[in-house]
Amino acid sequence: MKISASLYSAGDTNLQELVRELDAYRSDYFHIDCNDDVDVFDDIAKIKAYSDTPVDLHIISSEPQKFYKLIVDTHVELVTIQYETIEKWADLPVGFKGKLGIAITTETPIDVFDQFANRASFILFMATTPGKSGEPFQTQNFRKIREFRNRYPNKKIHVDGGINDELSFILRNMGVYSVVVGSYLLKQEFIGSAMVKLRSNQVGSAYCVRDFMLLPDEIPTLRIKDYQFPFMLQIIEDYKLGFVNVIDSNNHLIGIVSNADIRRAMLRKWPEIENLRIEDVMNTSPATINSNNTVNELLDYIKSLPFPVLFLPVTDNNGNLAGVLKFNNLIKGEL
User: Measured between alpha carbons, how far is 135 from 8 in angstroms, rounded to an integer?
Assistant: First the structure.
């Protein structure tokens, strides 16, 4: 996952010294906020003189097109337009060779991206209230990120707001491409130490599994009384997660059926596979995690398992199915 250092979060720090220090620690982008202020392009010109690191420009303006010539002239690589402030929209000129993104706040539905989908390469989720420094990440954005990834699998996802080491791990696991990091990175005594933590799997524990798991309406679930082999296969196919949770009438998790479980059952019963029972295919002792476990506890548990995991059913204290964690996006988030 890429790190975009929000330069203006460093306050009055000398720009040249800051750029060189961030380059030493391999910041992937330099994030600049343009709040209807043409003077930021003077800073962009200086950054370009100091470094080859791409500039990640966020424009907050009712008429973003008034900055287009400056964007082209300064060779900005990434341009993100804040959706909520747009009053007059014009597409970027053909001279712009970078990538366009659309930023939305927590309250704005992802549907607004539809009108830009043919032009924009990415979305930026503003996960805190713009202008409120130090505000915590608004957790409803976890679901919005998942929904956007499902709707636009070929578009990249960027996130800005409240980013720290723990959120960095969670967002990498969700397949987020880039995060904008301000205070956590630039107000530390040692920038290098903060950068290492942002890229590390050793994290704090402010978040619980329930904060970022897939919710019940997002996961494949089969009530055992409804079991029929073709019906079960269709659920697995529809959700494309490679497994299905099996529950009883009280929502208690009985077990799971994965693609591997089906393959093993078919090999055991071949060629008489038409009458496979749920008992033939279900794993009744799957690895699970409690919704109240912290991220650190989750990582310790995964490390303790004798096999790799692509998903984990999440249960509450009564053993009822609460959600699912999936890990197939973790590698994607590193690309």
Answer: 17
154-178: pLDDT as tens digits: 999 999 999 998 899 899 989 899 9
**Tens digits of per-residue pLDDT, 283-317?**
999 999 999 999 889 988 988 999 888 899 999 99
Give the Cα separation of 225 and 248 in Å (integer): 7
Q: Which is it for the CA torsion 249, 252, 255, 258, positive or negative?
A: positive
Least confident piece of the model among 76-80, 193-197, 213-217: 193-197
* Residue 106 to residues 103, 125, 140, Cα–Cα distance (Å): 10, 7, 7
- Which numeric CATH code is attached to 2-204? 3.20.20.70
Fold equal for 2-204 and 216-334: no
The fold of 216-334 is: CBS-domain (3.10.580)
Q: Which helix (H) or strand (E) holds 28?
A: none
Q: Give the DSSP letter of residue 85.
A: G
Tens of pLDDT, residue by residue over 96-133, are 999 999 999 999 999 999 999 999 999 999 999 876 66
Task: Provide the β-strand partners of residue 222.
Answer: 246
List the domain boundaries for the chain. Answer: 2-204, 216-334
Other CB atoms within 10 A of residue 224 CB: 15
